[in-house]
Amino acid sequence: MLKNSDDALIDKIVSLKKKRGAIILAHNYQLGQVQDIADFVGDSLELSQKAAKTNADVIIFCGVHFMAETASILCPDKVVLLPEIHARCPMAAMITAKQLREKKKEYPKAMVVCYVNSTVEVKAESDICCTSANAVEVTESLDSEEILFVPDQYLGHYVSTKTDKKIIPWPGYCSTHAKIQPWHITDLKKEYPQAKVVVHPECRPEVIALADEVLSTGGLCRYANRDDVKEVIVGTESGIIHRLRKENPGKKFIPVKHAICPRMKLTTLESILWSLQEMAHGIKVTEEIRFKAKTAVDRMLLIGRTQTPAK
Ligand code: 13P
Ligand code: SF4
To answer: Is the distance from the beta carbon of residue 188 to the nearest atom of ligand 2 less than 6 Å?
Structure first.
């Protein structure tokens, strides 16, 4: 029997992946087909942890550029490939290392917490990295009362509501999450009054104020697995709905309309196959900058994740 084109593509990817000794890592926002072919699907922290531990020679990173760059920081001896070179997080471009150096001069006593959605150069100028899964714990771990938090102002604001430290936020943002408005949530809540509201900490404070839980994408997946959770309004990028429904048949997950990250949607089965065939696009950072950035990433990985949704 003739195979359909997706099955044929999948067969080719699986056999070439084996030949290359590759592992496919995919973020929770990736297209459903991409998530389904991946060896591991997770949030930014889980993907960094997985990259740090894998024995594979080649990592195919289905996500955005900073994620592949973080894998390259952690695994300099491995080949890290990003199938779509234009898959870049716009927030990571909202601060440069030069701008951060200038800001540090204004606040000489402050320590710098850098969200992983940033370039390697900015990480290299920072004391520690964080993801949305551990931003509060990372901030609390620092021996300074003043924290320069870059580049996400909304994550920085969320952290400021959970700590007594003074947070000085950089004015960056995620346009996908910033477009989620309070009325998107309240309208859905009218339609689904029993549903729990879970939002990502990159959302605006007015949206966060309406949530039952504020969680990373990995935290949301664990929350959805709970027996007492049946219906959830999902205040984050809607690619995650695929995983939530797949892992929780019979439960209801309601996306916020238009919460789509175009950069996360660039990677396809075709681009993964091409990436394996051509061994492209290789993501590599220079040794000097890698060493500085790795210190900030390693400090974060030592803290890991303590975020678990309250029961
Ligand atoms: P997570 O670390 O929660 O997966 O978030 C990554 C991201 O890019 C959110 O927009
Ligand atoms: Fe960047 Fe937002 Fe897309 Fe995440 S969802 S990759 S923060 S633009």
So the answer is: no
